Amino acid sequence: MPNKKTLALTEENYKKIIETMKTGFIYKAPEEHEKKFNPNDKVATALVLEANLGLRISDILKLRLNDIVKDGDRYRLDITEQKTGKTRNFTVPGEIYRYLENYTLKHNIKPTARIFDVTERAVQKQLKITADYLGLDGIGTHSFRKFFATQVYTNNGYNIELVRTLLQHSNSAITQRYIGIQQKDVEDALNKHIQLI
């Protein structure tokens, strides 16, 4: 279950985390010796997919390339969410499919094999180390799903119903709490209403 205090990433922090994972780094935790963390394309790519598809990391880690089916002129993903048991059938943008296809070719992963042979715990551990190295607090794997939600919300005319549908929440109030927009909306409304004479 995601921590309620997990924050949505900013675009800047999203890019920093992914770039740092892809290049590797040397890190010295308090009261520890210096450790080298090699580039981790696998974890970085799994998190990129979470940020671009809005799926939970548990569902990302189960993916196989052949789970994405060409359907006419589009690609479609049909999955059953591990957490909720709900079926999700949605379009995968061609650019994301090609990104994933290139990753599987580069790493010699068969279309029927799991793309990410890594545990959720290993992803969380690598992310925590990277976030600590970058000095970022409140970041977990769910931060990437929240990043997806907030980006869709702000880039599509603040359409909360669209985000609700994409995340498969049962109502908009849950989605509003999820992406933390209630307080911002209240503040914006108050600031727009000023009628001083």
Automatic annotation (TrEMBL):
Keywords from the named record: DNA recombination
Record-level Gene Ontology MF annotations: DNA binding
BP GO annotations: DNA integration; DNA recombination
InterPro entries: DNA_brk_join_enz, Integrase-like_cat_sf, Integrase_catalytic, Tyrosine_recombinase_XerCD
One Pfam family from the record: Phage_integrase
Span of domain Tyr recombinase: 4-191
Presence of the UniProt keyword Cell inner membrane in the record: no
PANTHER family for the chain: INTEGRASE_RECOMBINASE YOEC-RELATED, PHAGE INTEGRASE-RELATED
UniProt-recorded name of the protein: Integrase
